[in-house]
Amino acid sequence: MRLYLLALNPTDSVTEGFLPAAARLGLDVTVLTDQPDAHRAAYLGPEHPRIEILECDVRDFRAVITRISTHHTPDAVFTNSDHLQTQAALAAAYFGLPAKNWRATLRTKDKAEMRRHLAASGVDTVWSAELSEPAALDAPYPCVVKPREGVASEDVVLVDSSEELVTRCKEILARRPGAVLVVEEYLPGELYTLETLGDGRTRHILGGFHTELSPPPYFIEDRLTFVPAHPEPVVAQVLAQLDALDVGFGACHTEFVVHEGRARIIEVNYRAIGDQCDLLLGRLLEIPLFEHILRTHLGEPLPADLGARRDGAARLDYPCAERAGTLTAAPEASELAVDGVQLTYRPLRETGERHELYRTNRDYLGVLRATGTDQRAVDRAATAFLAAQRWEIQP
């Protein structure tokens, strides 16, 4: 069976998750990408057999359809990229294959359209506006300004006045010529995620995370702590909003805040959670997560019970650069077992690399995954590991 996987740059989710899962399922894989050299360099190991890499303008669904129709017959078209969900959905639908509703992928990717649709559906209304050029707005400050189709908290910032809004919009549009920005009211509350997996009929709740952020005005995710089960009323509110968006096929990573018992969606990423949280989740729940996701795109129904382990505790920490410069010292990759806690550290930057300060997850220096069965033990082990490490950045 032939799986077409659409991708931009290589990611841990694909390299360590979906491609090994495809190999275990016995699938022949064709990667369609606009960065073929980067993918060839990423898949040199023996754990990536039977992977074909073809260059394609994957942002254009017509180019994707043409590339597939002039190559091997597809059995599934899949992507885990935020940017390519609509293209993959349209291509899969063209070939009569299982797919997400392209309207749902579009309205979740387009943050302004998501707000309009949720309001029109009567499930939640958030004040928002769109700007294609800097302008003062009579808005309910503080507000959040962000790219309409952005990802990873890039160029997401809190503003307290119309003057600051104009200044921030000028800065963002200078970096993103032609972009459209969304300005929306700030939603107070604790930030969480809900991770779901569905086949269009059955939907499983995999749990979620409590997210700790950097101080305002930026929104960098510093730490995520696993939440095995959110309160039922909270889950019901989030699922009602996902139903209104027609989200229910494959994996979905939803970010939401809870304030005084009310759950309100911040954004919907219609894919598996990233930044190695998906790798942790499969390991923690002891389920073949990536295989389940791929099987839904092959048209296979999900089991009524995934058999997920429910006694796990976990957290992820992201050591983050606080200034621009060259990374001159950093810990190497490691695997440790401490007091029943499994620690996995992976560097995300090479020593000797120079970077600017982005105020996004591109500032991450590494990621620590800690898993066990007791949250206090997990927290102690993670805290001690991080305290013993050293990252040095020279101007």
Could you explain how this protein is built, in words?
Residues 115-298 form the ATP-grasp domain. InterPro entries: ATP-dep_AA_Ligase (IPR052032), ATP-grasp (IPR011761), ATP_grasp_subdomain_1 (IPR013815). This is Acetyl-CoA carboxylase biotin carboxylase subunit family protein. One of its GO terms (molecular function) is ATP binding. It holds the Pfam family ATP-grasp_4. 30% of the residues lie in helices and 30% in strands. The chain has 3 domains: 2-99, Rossmann fold, CATH 3.40.50.20; 127-185, ATP-grasp fold, A domain (Dna Ligase, domain 1, 2-Layer Sandwich), CATH 3.30.1490.20; 190-394, ATP-grasp fold, B domain (D-amino Acid Aminotransferase, Chain A, domain 1), CATH 3.30.470.20. The mean pLDDT is 96. The protein is globular and about 55 Å long. Strand 16 and strand 17 (341-347) form a beta hairpin. It has 11 helices and 20 strands. A 9-stranded antiparallel beta sheet has the order 13-12-9-10-11-14-19-17-16, sandwiched between helices. The protein has a 4-stranded parallel beta sheet with strand order 3-2-1-4, sandwiched between helices. A 4-stranded antiparallel beta sheet has the order 5-8-6-7, sandwiched between helices. The protein is α+β, with helices and mostly antiparallel strands and 395 residues long. The chain has helices at 12-24, 36-42, 61-69, 85-94, 102-109, 111-121, 162-175, 232-245, 277-285, 289-297, 375-387; strands at residues 2-7, 28-33, 51-55, 76-79, 128-131, 143-147, 157-159, 181-185, 190-199, 203-213, 221-227, 249-259, 262-269, 313-317, 325-329, 334-338, 341-347, 354-355, 366-372, 392-394.
